[in-house]
Amino acid sequence: MAAEDTRRPRADAARNRQQLLAVATRLFASAETEPSMRAIASEAGVGIATLYRHFPTRESLVDAVYRDQVARLTSGARELLAELDPPAALRRWMDLFGEWVATKNGMLDTLLAMIESGEIGHAHTRTELLAAIDEILDAGRTSGQLRGDVPAEDIAAALIGIFTVAGSPEHKAMAARLLNLLMDGLRPSSRRR
Question: How many domains does the chain have?
């Protein structure tokens, strides 16, 4: 029996899990209130039993979506730096951060309860996100394309402010303008547009 516990999930089970995560992420981002587990399963094209087999509780699904999004943000910093110069990587990362914030809309009540109960470590997530910002900032400082006097904490605070004011889909253009203003302020004065 122990050998069965260490086996990799079947390919279809792994696909179902990924599909459920993708659909839950999309529904959480577009919903004003938390979508039902049944709605998530239906949208993913699987039965409710399949959803519960992968995620026995709403909290386990919210936790998986949350952790998946944080992992995408942290690995996204490295991937973006491999493809883009530091300012372009940081600007694109800001868009990813906005998508992450939007995902929390439809799971906010559950997420807040989980943070309050200690099921999700808010401090650990903050540390991971600041490290991702620092990674891009360090590359930009080294290349001379980003200012050296702005800490990651200030950028994170600015992003939270921007997405608090302009986080809804109808404010997407405003968010883009505000992010571009933030980016202009992060460039050394000789490199500003």
Answer: 1
Single out the residue of 153, 67, 157, 55 nearest to residue 104, CA to CA.
Answer: 67
CATH of the domain at 174: 1.10.357.10
Domain range enclosing 132: 58-191
The tokens describing 146, both together, are 């980003």
pLDDT truncated to tens, each residue of the chain (193 aa)? 444 555 566 788 889 999 999 999 989 888 777 899 999 999 999 999 999 999 999 999 988 998 898 888 899 999 999 999 999 999 999 999 988 888 777 777 787 777 777 777 777 788 899 999 999 999 999 999 999 999 999 999 999 899 888 877 788 999 999 999 999 999 998 655 5
**CA-CA distances (angstroms) from residue 135 to 7, 67, 129, 157?**
35, 20, 10, 17
* Residue 29 covered by a domain: no
Instruction: Give the tokens for residue 172.
Output: 């997407």
Collapsing DSSP states into helix, strand and coil, what is residue 149? coil
pTM passes above 0.90:
no
Q: Is residue 16 part of a domain?
A: no
Contacts 24+ apart (CB under 8 A), 149-157: 150/186, 155/182, 155/186, 156/126, 156/129, 156/130
| Within a domain: 37 | no
CA 166 – CA 86 distance, rounded (Å): 24
- 30 lies in a domain? no
